[in-house]
Amino acid sequence: MDINLHQLHIFRAVAEYGSFSRAASALYLSQPGVSLQVKSLEKSIGLPLFEKVGRTLHLTEAGHELLTYSERIFGLLEETRLVMEELGGGRRGTVKVAASTTAGIYVVPPALGAFHHEYPEVKLTLDVLNRFSVQKKLLDNEVDLAVMGLIEDTQDMEVAEFVPNELVVIAAPEHRLAGETKIPIEELSREIFLLREAGSGTRVDTQGFFEQRGITPRVGMELRSSGAIKQAVAAELGIAVMPLAALELELVTGRLTVLEVVGFPVHRHWYLARRAGGHISATASSLWNFLITYRDNLAQLAQPAPAAAERKA
């Protein structure tokens, strides 16, 4: 029986899409080419794999059996790929990462850059999404590792603290409170707040902080990205609470300023997460362990230098 993986791959696509034309489109092949490969496969097996009822394509009994074995074959091939990666000591292969919006833009890229410097042959992918989509991708086994600022349900996940996420109050440099010190938290009740969209981890943390102090912020606008928030604050449309990590450029250039409000900064963390149980490739484990070390090194660098007297002693 002369069957090859290319034929099985095309057969699976036709079975999945229920159409020769849709399968051809998904595989970037011509429809006649797809039909020819399926016919060749049927000839090798000696049995029809599909039957058409009206305008709908259905698997025959032989088709169902072949699909079952095809899934096993491709599953074994994927397992073989992972084993080969492990034999490489985690220095080859692919790791898929997903991160919530702010972390994905401002926090994760420098860490992945440092990893790439150490493991140049590892291919990295990064999806930047809202935190609900990030968690779903992780639990659906679509990514190997995730970075989020807020994880409300850690079931089926292994979670570790990553780097600090300090939330600060920002305003335009011309704001009436700019340059003031020890600003009472109650003073903010007079201000218009710009908030991230409902469900954002930063918004949840911000609202929780104010609720604990019996303050209801006056909401002026809801925006779906940190960049939009910064632009609106710079345009004096209101003030906002944002992660300090997202403000480096704006603070250096003087486009925005941090208000010294009592109770701020609010200290939070971004978290690393991966699925609990199941197979974790050596390459994904290498990235996880690297990020833990990266976190520890950053924490060590953030420690204040010892006083001169202590150094002398």
Overall geometric form? elongated
Q: Would you tell me the structural class of the helices and strands?
A: alpha/beta
CATH-derived topology of the largest domain: D-Maltodextrin-Binding Protein, domain 2
* Global Rg: 27 Å
Major sheet description? 7 strands, mixed
CATH homologous superfamily of the largest domain? Answer: Periplasmic binding protein-like II
Folded structure, characterized:
The chain is an alpha/beta fold and 313 residues long. The chain has three domains: 5-87, Arc Repressor Mutant, subunit A (Orthogonal Bundle); 93-163 and 269-301, Periplasmic binding protein-like II (D-Maltodextrin-Binding Protein, domain 2, 3-Layer(aba) Sandwich), CATH 3.40.190; 165-267, D-Maltodextrin-Binding Protein, domain 2. Helices cover 46% and strands 23% of the residues. The protein contains eleven helices and eleven strands. Strands 3, 4, 5, 6, 9, 10 and 11 form a seven-stranded mixed beta sheet that branches. Helix 1 packs across helix 2 (20-27) and helix 1 crosses helix 4 (61-87).
